Amino acid sequence: MTKFSRVAVPVTVIAHLIVNLLHGRAHTELGVGLTSWQQFYVIAVILLAPLIALLLSWTRYARTGLWLLLGSMLGSLIFGACYHYIIVSSDHVAHLPPGDARGLFRATALLLLITEAAGVVLAAMALRKRIHERD
After folding, report:
1. Residue 28: partners with Cβ closer than 8 Å, 6 or more residues away
2. Domain total of the chain
3. Going by C-beta distance under 8 Å and a sequence separation of 6 or more, which residues neighbour residue 8?
4. Is residue 98 within 8 Å of residue 32, measured between CB atoms?
5. DSSP readout, the chain?
6. Which of the pair, 109 or 2, is modelled with greater confidence?
């Protein structure tokens, strides 16, 4: 990875984790629950996979880590966009139950999209650079 990627990837993954934790807090405070499969998806794809990808990026499996980062951030981006902005439910930013955490929920939903999009772009750029280095 480039010097930029070595800094940008960890910053993005850690920022994404922090925003996720805050978003989870807003979910809890508002009583916005998830189904069992959504809970599994959030834990496996949105929380753990980027952290595992980050750890792999510091090993000889860096390329695998970048692919995992790309896939997990893309999966997170699609999931969040659908559930926070498209599918009408209590998880939609415009249809939240009443409560003090509505602002936190909305802000973190947007920040999740931003960090996930950044993760997708950074992983894609790093992978592209690795592929061109081999040519």
Report:
1. none
2. 1
3. 118, 122
4. no
5. --HHHHHHHHHHHHHHHHHHHHHHHHHHHHT----HHHHHHIIIIIIIHHHHHHHHHTSTTHHHHHHHHHHHHHHHHHHHHIIIIIS-STTSTTSPPSSTTHHHHHHHHHHHHHHHHHHHHHHHHHHHHHHHHH-
6. 109
Token couple for 64: 């695998």
The parent domain of residue 108 ranges over: 3-134
Residue 89 has which token pair?
């439910």
Question: Could you tell me which of 68, 87, 81 has the C-alpha nearest to residue 113?
Answer: 81
Structural contact between residues 73 and 50, judged by C-beta atoms closer than 8 angstroms: yes
Q: What percent of the chain has pLDDT over 90?
A: 87
